Every structure is written in structure tokens, then in C-alpha cells.
Amino acid sequence: MNHFEYRDQILHCEGVPVPLIAASVGTPFYLYSAATLTRHFQAMDQAFADIPHVTCFAAKSCSNIAILNLFGRLGGGADIVSGGELFRALTAGIDPKKIVYSGVGKTPEELRYALKSGILMFNVESLQELETLQAVAAALDLVAPVALRINPDVDPKTHAYISTGLAKNKFGLPLDQAAEVYAAAQAMPHIEVVGVSCHIGSQLTTVAPFVEALNKVIAFVRRLSANGITIKYLDMGGGLGINYDQEEPPLPAEYAAALKEALREVPGCTLIIEPGRVIVGNAGILVTKVLYTKSGAKHFIIVDAGMNDLARPSLYGAYHRIQPVEEKGQENVVADLVGPICETGDFLAKERMLPVCASDDLLAVMSAGAYGFSMSSNYNSRPRVAEVLVRGDEFQVIRKRETFAALIQGENIPEWEEFSG
Ligand code: LLP
């Protein structure tokens, strides 16, 4: 359920007609509904209300500080994967005691920044990272709270690029090495073992792989406790999928019920979840304008948003529903919806039944709230687009469209002789 609906044939975001926003901010732009963001956050968070838990929103999926701030006010924390995301989360007012830090390649500088910020937990993915964290913590005379990320070797049955829990993926520690690394961590004076973490992949559409992974993690936690290592936090990552097209992913309540059932085995553990897509995916759309159309061997609709603005179709062959912003009873035509980028891989939809369009028509690329803006780039020297948040009958620009000046910010022409000709 989301708050993008037609009223009198015009697509609205909550109470605001989308064309009104387009006229005010220009196109393309990302548009988010505060009511949908809130509803989805609460659906996930409240599904675990009866057990100790922290909902750490995966900042990588949508990292605008206005949105992080909204989740912070709803009691959420953040799952971060870089110093930049930590900076965003702290700037947005997220409580550092609700921040967990994941990722295989944290630099010593990033570890130092997070340690000084007093985050809840580092999800460490290798022995070398653990040793680096111990050294960084010793130099600061601090103690780093640590969970080791386990790779449970479970198939999440999702796109190969976003599956993370298989033995062949770069993430986490194999189960057969993890016990040894825990023992090493226990012996390090500036490391405090507090948790176990796991994240098997993204856009999962069944609960079975989550349960399989959780059962492996729980068996491991019991082994640790037999060895005198007590675990306070059990972090099961994110990954719950959404409906883009025909998928029927489990509802948060079904997902929660399955996890809670297994968690009875480890009373006293606080659960951490790191949902991203399930909260923001269907709370945001990308609005784009038709520039031109042309027909030859195929029919092309050329719009002003490209793969630099929304990379998912080009990168993963991902499906995003395309809807006209104004329903005019248009006929449909099979077309490719393409952007202005100079690459054949620049498309938003391929061989799709789309409304017959004219120049200046607005189209909505649906389900673009997760990994949309946050993966956008300046490729082809295109300024990144605006982001707009609607609440009720009001809208606000939460990120201005970039200027040309911003494109070359920090660049410099050297004053070397050979350059001056
Ligand atoms: N926790 C960790 C450690 C992660 O690596 C991820 C996502 C999440 C949580 C959040 O997963 P979610 O709940 O959003 O599925 N760019 C891709 C998705 C990459 C996911 C990376 N990790 C896409 O557009 O589909």
C-alpha cells in the first residue's frame, strides 16, 4: 500500500498533484511520500514490537538526510557502510547508539571516525579488519563493540549481483572459520564481542532463506555460548523484497513471525534488522518528461532521465512499472523507454506496453525509492536530479537539483608550463 494514486486521472502523491511539483521544480525528480515512508517503517518496526529489537534503516538504499531524520524521529537507527553514510546519519540526528556499521572494506580512518562517534556495533567481516579495529581502538584508548559477520552459505534466490550469503560471495566469514576469529576477538583488549551478524541478500521474495540462515546463526551462537562467549545482539541484516511487477513477497508481519519463532531459541538476545528496500522502495518514484519519440525497427520514447539517474534497469535488468502522470485514455504501443545517455544500455524499460506519448508528457517510474537516487551519478556530466518530499498537501525540495558549477566543484586546471602552451 502506498500513497501514489490517480485522482481525476492525475497522479497524486498524497494530496499533491504530481504535475504541480513538476511545474515548480522541473524534471526529472525523485518524489517521496512521507506517509508511505512512515507507514512502511512502522509496519516493519512494529512487527517486532513484542521482542527487544532495533530497526537500523539501511542508509545505502536512500540516504537523503531528511529521510534519515524521519526514521530517526520514528525511533529508528541506521545501518551504514561508509564514513560518508555515518556523516549523513549523524547529521540527520540518528542516535549513534542505534548505528551499526557493515561492509568488507572499512578503512582505518572510517573505523576511527565510527569509534569516536560511539556507534552501537561494528559488523566485522575479516580477521584483518578485526586486527585493524583493535589497533585503531588501542590508539584511541577506546573499546570497540563488535559483531562478526557470518557467511551462512544460504542461497537467497535473488539476482546474482545482490546475493551476499553464498560461500562464493565476498561477504562475511565462513562458519568454519568464525569460531576461531571469535576466540581471537575475545583475547583482544580493545575489542568487546557483543554480537553476531548476517545479511544474505536483497529483494528476497520468500522467508525460507532467512529462516535457514537464522537457524545456522542460532546454532553458532549456542556454540559460542558453550565456549563462554555471550552474544547480546543478533543482527539479521535486511533483504525483504517488494512488489515491482508480479512478485508477492511476504508481508513484514509474516517475515517477523518466522524470525521470532526461531529466535525463541536464544532468549535474551536483542534483534537488529537492517531493512532498506522494503521501507523506501515503494515510497518513491522518479518523474521524467518525454523529450522526443521516434519509430524505426522499434518505437523509442526518449525521456529526460537516464541510467545515471536510475541505474537499476541497466545494471540488473530490473523492472520498474512505468505510468503516465496524466491518464488521457492514450492507446498503448510497444516501446523502449530510453534516456539521453550515450550508451545503448541506457534504458528505463525495454519492449514494454507503454502509453503513446507526446513531447512534454510526464511519466512516473514507479518503485524507485530504494537504490534510485542513492545510486545516481553525474555520468555524461548530468547534474543529479532534485529530491522532493510530500507530506499531506505540502511538498518540499529535500535536495536541490545540482548546478553546472557543482559538477566541477573541486576540479582544478594545473598551472604547469606545458599546460599553458
Ligand atoms: N544490510 C546489509 C549489510 C546490506 O548489504 C544491505 C543491502 C542491506 C542491509 C539492505 O538490504 P535491503 O533491505 O535494502 O534489501 N543496489 C541493489 C541492492 C543492493 C543491496 C546491497 N545491500 C538494487 O538496486 O537492487
Description:
The chain has 12 helices and 21 strands. It has 421 residues and is an alpha/beta fold. Strands 4, 14, 15, 16, 17, 18, 19, 20 and 21 form a 9-stranded mixed sheet that branches. An 8-stranded parallel β-barrel has the order 5-6-7-8-9-11-12-13, surrounded by 4 helices. Strands 1-2-3 form a 3-stranded antiparallel sheet. The longest helix is centred in the middle third of the chain and has 19 residues, at 208-226. It is globular and about 70 Å long. The chain binds ligand LLP. Ligand LLP binds at residues 58, 61, 79, 102, 162, 199, 202-203, 237-240, 274-278, 312, 316, 370-371, 375.
Write a short abstract of this structure.
The protein has twelve helices and 21 strands.
Form type: globular
Q: How many E-type strands? A: 21
Which ligands does the model contain, each kind named once?
ligand LLP
Report the uncertain regions. none
Q: How many strands, which pairing sense, and closed or not: the largest β-sheet?
A: 9 strands, mixed
Number of helices: 12
* Terminal CA distance: 62 Å
Secondary structure: helix percent: 25-40%
Provide keyphrases for this structure.
about 425 residues; about 25% strand; 8-stranded parallel beta barrel; 21 strands; binds ligand LLP; alpha/beta
Topology:
Elements: E1 4-7, E2 10-13, E3 16-17, H1 18-25, E4 29-33, H2 34-46, E5 53-58, H3 65-73, E6 77-80, H4 83-91, E7 99-101, H5 108-117, E8 121-124, H6 127-140, E9 144-151, E10 173-174, H7 175-186, E11 191-197, H8 208-226, E12 233-235, H9 252-263, E13 270-273, H10 277-280, E14 284-295, E15 299-303, H11 312-316, E16 322-324, E17 332-338, E18 347-355, E19 362-365, E20 386-391, E21 394-399, H12 404-407
Parallel strand pairs: 4-20, 5-6, 5-13, 6-7, 7-8, 8-9, 9-10, 9-11, 11-12, 12-13, 15-17
Antiparallel strand pairs: 1-2, 2-3, 4-14, 14-15, 14-19, 16-19, 17-18, 20-21
Helix pairs in contact: 5-6, 8-9
Bound molecules: ligand LLP.
